[in-house]
Amino acid sequence: MKKTILLSGIALFIITMVACEKMLPPAPKDEEILAGTIPGLTPQQEHEHLVGDIAFGKIFTPEQGLGPIFVQTSCSNCHAGNGKGHPTNVLTRFANVNGSIVDYLLSKGGPQLQQSSIMGYPAEVIPGEANVFSKRMAPAIMGLGYIAALSDASILANVDSNDVDADGISGRINYVNPTSFFIPQSIHIPNGSQYIGRFGKKAEKVTIQDQVVFALKQDIGITSDFDMQDLYNVQAGINTGDNVTDPEVSASFVYSLVFYMRTLKAPTRRNTDDPDVMAGENLFNQIGCNSCHKSTFVTAQSDIEALSNQTFHPYSDFLLHDMGQLLDDSYPEGNAKGSEWRTPPLWGLGLAKDSQGGQLFLLHDGRATTFEGAISFHGGEAASRRTAFNTLSEQQKQQLIKFLESL
After folding, report:
1. Does residue 7 have a pLDDT over 50?
2. Which residues on neighbouring strands pair with residue 326, listed in sequence order?
3. In 3-state terms, what secondary structure has residue 286?
4. Second label for 366, Cα 20 to 30 Å away, from 87, 183, 334, 347?
5. DSSP letters for 323-349
6. What is the mean pLDDT of residues 251-275?
């Protein structure tokens, strides 16, 4: 009797599990998500990626060094699903600009606003001396390892500062001063004491590590071996930071984050055999969008073998371009003027709204909610491309948009 009851219970359990499995949604396909590792990692590298993934999602508490002023409590809060940020969670950069003189107001809490604070401590407000402000949405972070493994020579090959080919495009390099912890690699070509910036909205960061150290400090208020000075609200008094011993995270924690970001896969193209997508790609090239959004690069030799000599398709030239008055934030960075922006990679564009709550937010500050809207803000060097898009038929416009959605 007991045996019969036991068998019946097992049968009921199996039936229940099968029924529940049928109710669950199918697992998303690889091309439908931004998470995942680059192909070809060793088991040890896969483990290192997982360690970095955990660090990326770590939510800091005041006891662990959060703040005392901050923007968010973890990396993943800004980069949900490794994708683009949301306008409700923008970063604000501020400065005082007087002609060619730029003061990032470091003694007043600059260059970035930390609008949140730990309990009992006042949040920061923008100082009255600031006269320029720039809103920034967090960028998507997939495929960064390929960009980091690109040689400076490959970026320099597309520079056309004087528009020699007369196509209206004159992309140029943002040469920036390196951080104190920057170690040049064989891919880096110095320009005096400066190096080529390739990361950030205005290509103001040379390496992923530069970006990670800056974000830990300016976004979360976390010090590391590479930046030991704690954040504090200058309006509350000098050095009124938290009571957690600095550095609040180790060099190995930073390296784990860098490795994680270096080994995130590039977005997978979708619907490439769709006739409308193929027609849209042809139109994209015909009206000259590919002058800046270049499709294909090849990495140099890398210490991560899976990143060595790899062909990838970011749809960017990683150069600065003058985008005109509508996108001028008056906030210079390095050698980049207020109207100049690094060409943003378009890969993953078709999956952007999935990480933005179902609504698409484009451009550096999320002001455009459609592809047509984003194109309408293209001025300066890109004005002729905007005009060319506007002359397309409605069917052609939709084909070009289908192509963008396939990236």
Report:
1. no
2. none
3. helix
4. 334
5. --GGG--S--BTTB-TTEEE----TTG
6. 97
Q: Which residues pair with 311 in a beta bridge?
A: 298
Q: How does residue 21 score in pLDDT terms, banded at 50, 70 and 90?
A: low
Nearest C-alpha neighbor of 70 from the set 106, 118, 105, 107? 118
Question: Domain limits of the chain?
Answer: 2-31
Tokens (6 digits) for 340: 């100049």
pLDDT at 167: 79
Q: Check: CB of residue 267 under 8 Å from CB of residue 29.
A: no
In contact, 320 and 342? CB cutoff 8 Å: yes
Residue 87 pLDDT > 90: no
Residue ranges of the alpha helices (H) in 233-391?
A: 251-262, 275-286, 371-376, 383-390
pLDDT digits (tens, 9 = 90+) for 359-380: 999 999 999 999 999 999 999 9
User: Confidence band (pLDDT; 50, 70, 90) for 27?
Assistant: low
CA 255, chain centre distance (Å): 18
In angstroms, rounded to a whole number, what is the distance separating the alpha carbons of residues 85 and 112?
Answer: 17
Question: What's the angle, vertex CA 215, arms to CA 207 and CA 328, rounded to 5?
Answer: 80
Q: Are 188 and 195 in contact (CB under 8 A)?
A: yes
Bridge-based pairing state of the strands 311-312 and 91-98: unpaired
The confidence score (pLDDT) of residue 39 equals: 96
Asked whether the whole model's pTM tops 0.85, one would answer: yes
CA distance 32 to 63: 38
CB-CB neighbours of 121 under 10 Å: 18
pLDDT of res. 6: 47
Residue 248 contacts residue 65 (beta carbons within 8 Å): yes
